[in-house]
């Protein structure tokens, strides 16, 4: 696993992620980019939105 300061968490696949609503999503790719910023339209997978959109609170996080 590799975590960058401005981007996603890279995990060797396959990967299963349990979302806050209890649903499970799976990727069979060799390397999976998991969104840490909460801006991805493909959440929980990274779509590089962290590069072009203003910051937003992480999905599933409570009020700050």
From TrEMBL:
User: Residues in domain Iron-binding zinc finger CDGSH type?
Assistant: 12-56
Pfam families linked: zf-CDGSH
Record keyword Iron present: yes
> Any idea which UniProt keywords this protein has?
2Fe-2S, Iron, Iron-sulfur, Metal-binding
Secretion signal span: none
Q: Superkingdom of the source?
A: Bacteria
Tell me the protein's name: Iron-binding zinc finger CDGSH type domain-containing protein
- Specify the species: Streptomyces javensis
